């Protein structure tokens, strides 16, 4: 046992322990060890969550990069389609089927839209260039075909008054808007419409 060398310097203390030390109970040490163990477990859990989130972020970034590449490919192919001369023209009221019309009628609708009632529209139809017929079916990545499927679903829901709205999900609406296939025309309540580029995509013959 260590004895104090100067017991007279601190007569208020016992002489069995150095000045400034205290006895530590085993129960307190056990509690301290248990708290440290719990802290270590919590750190490990948080580290695992961070790694999982990093993985999800990497997957989301990869999916976003794929979407952008798919959008660029579709834009290039749709641009090639638009460079061709239209092969037909159609017009309709919003709730009706498309019907064939003349080029002169199409030009009139586009030139003087105020001459027609609301909900009346006209469009051009294009034929795919021969070099694009194979390319669309064989070179579009799976994500691009998924984009086309979502566009078709949007169109189907929009054309059906009893559908109760579009059911492709908000993230797809935002993505299709980013790809310029949809236009957001109203914020509250949120409304979207198919852009001219989206119309071109829907009327392309894609071999799936």
Which range best describes the helical content: under 10%, 10-25%, 25-40%, 40-55%, 55-70% or over 70%? Answer: 40-55%
Please give the radius of gyration in angstroms. Answer: 35 Å
Largest sheet: 3 strands, antiparallel
Q: How many strands appear in the DSSP assignment?
A: 5
Question: Which segments are poorly predicted (pLDDT under 50) over 5 or more consecutive residues?
Answer: 130-138
SS content category: mainly alpha
Query: Roughly what fraction of the amino acids lie in strands?
Result: 5-15%
Strand order of the largest sheet: 2-1-3
Q: How are helices and strands ordered from N to C? A: HEEHEHHHEEH
Mean pLDDT equals 75
Distance between the termini: 88 Å
What quaternary form is this?
single chain
What descriptors fit this protein?
208 residues, mainly alpha, three-stranded antiparallel sheet, two-stranded antiparallel ribbon, 6 helices, 53% helix
Quick overview:
The protein has 6 helices and 5 strands, in the order H-E-E-H-E-H-H-H-E-E-H. It has 208 residues and is mainly alpha-helical.
Structure description:
It is a single chain. This protein is mainly α. Among the domains are: 66-81 and 131-208, no CATH class; 86-125, no CATH class. It has helices at residues 26-82, 103-111, 130-139, 142-159, 170-178, 196-202; strands at 88-93, 99-101, 120-125, 182-186, 191-194. The radius of gyration is 35 Å and the shape is elongated. Residues 130-138 have low confidence and may be disordered.
């Amino acid at each position: 046992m260590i004895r104090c060398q100067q017991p007279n310097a601190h007569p208020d203390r016992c002489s069995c322990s150095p000045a400034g030390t205290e006895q530590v109970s085993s129960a307190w040490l056990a509690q301290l060890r248990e708290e440290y163990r719990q802290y270590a477990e919590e750190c490990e859990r948080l580290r695992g969550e961070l790694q999982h989130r990093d993985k999800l972020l990497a997957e989301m970034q990869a999916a976003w990069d794929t979407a952008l590449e798919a959008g660029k490919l579709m834009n290039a192919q749709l641009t090639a389609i638009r460079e061709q001369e239209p092969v037909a023209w159609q017009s309709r009221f919003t709730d009706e089927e498309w019907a064939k019309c003349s080029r002169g009628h199409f030009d009139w609708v586009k030139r003087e839209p105020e001459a027609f009632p609301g909900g009346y529209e006209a469009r051009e139809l294009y034929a795919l260039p021969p070099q694009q017929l194979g390319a669309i079916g064989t070179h579009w990545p799976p994500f691009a075909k998924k984009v086309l499927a979502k566009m078709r679903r949007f169109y189907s829901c929009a054309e059906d008054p009893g559908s109760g709205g579009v059911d492709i999900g908000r993230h797809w609406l935002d993505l299709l808007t980013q790809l310029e296939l949809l236009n957001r025309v109203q914020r509250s309540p949120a409304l979207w419409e198919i852009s001219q580029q989206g119309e071109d995509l829907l009327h392309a013959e894609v071999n799936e």
